[in-house]
Amino acid sequence: MPHPSALDADAVRRLLSLESPPALPVQRVTEGGEHVTWTIGTDRVLRMAVDEETSERQRREVRLRDAVRGHLPVAVPRSLAAGEWAPGLAYTVDTLLPGVSAERRTVSGTGEQDLSGLLAGLRSYDAGNVEGSAGDDGLGLPSEPWRDLVELKARALVAARRLAADREFDATLTERRLHAPPEPEPSVVLLHNDLKGEHLLVDEDGALTGVLDWTDAALGDPAEDVAGLAIAVGASAAVRAAALASYGPQVCLRGLWLARCDTLLNLSDALYGPDDSPVPLLRTQRGRAWQLTPLDL
User: Fewer CB atoms < 10 Å away: N or C end of the chain?
Assistant: First the structure.
């Protein structure tokens, strides 16, 4: 079975029964990871899963997006076609949303309000509607366990000391911005669970135009999505958005803890371990997560 990155534009045309010679341009935009992605014309995106586990999550994503679309104030892609590009391996053709990655464009105050609406919409969505298996009324989303902040901090401190030795991090920040770990709020919410910058689309005015890639969605700790925003748009913006969504200081602080520990571990893994993620991006994300916020004072 070929890897989808081995396919060329003509093979994609045959898969989608597009006319040849091409009436629409077909161009690969990403390779590697869980999907290979192509643009089809100017308004469609083809995503091809590379394994069966990703395929199942991609099928679940289509159902989830349809379920939450009317509950969120921001756009999510709509699936126009779906099937298998090889036995057991899924593909979807989705609408291409406007905007560019939040990694390339700063979110404005209006964008923070959009992020707040996203968090509030996910929080208010009835978890009973998304539990269960795909065969019943639910969507079969997994439950994400609460992470142990004490254990996470211990590993992050080891990474911080190693990074500090190479002048990659000011280790004194851990003393000032990782105090006693906040207690988790006993609530379960619907999580996007991967709110990285590349999954947030932003227009020229800094407003949010869409949220991509819902394949990691789960039920769990609301601080996880706050942590994602801290890494994607900065700790200060994440706290403001979460507060506007009526999350209290405990959830916000827990989100900052998660983001700050994660960014130290991610950078350490890239510099000293097997992770091949781009180091400049990880440094930028660490800087965002470690911004000073009023909660640190």
Answer: C
